[in-house]
Amino acid sequence: MAEEIFEFRWVVPPSTLGRAVEQYGARVFVAIKAVADFTAQRLQGDARNDAPWQDRTGNARSGLFGVAEQVAQEIVEIYLAHTMKYGLFLELAHGGRYAVIIKTMERDFPELTRMLDEIFAG
Hints:
Elements: H1 14-50, H2 59-63, E1 65-72, E2 75-81, H3 87-92, H4 101-121
Antiparallel strand pairs: 1-2
């Protein structure tokens, strides 16, 4: 029985493939950061518009802010928070009657998920 010889040749060198994967990862991270920035601004606007309390000074409403930050090499966090000390009271007192942070984040979460899914599907 004759011995079969198989030959393997790279069409594209492994080093080129490795660089392409790294570049793709960098592009994906840029897209994720852009989605996070967009979402943070949308959260901020939605929270300010939908805050259920009656303004006295306007400080609590204008003090709501959303921001996306890169906290590690491959980690982006989105924050929605109050700048006023009594923001915690608004969120927790009276059975959450004046809460806006969690409600806004929960409402906008499906859209964030959809945008991230598009990044990875595309």
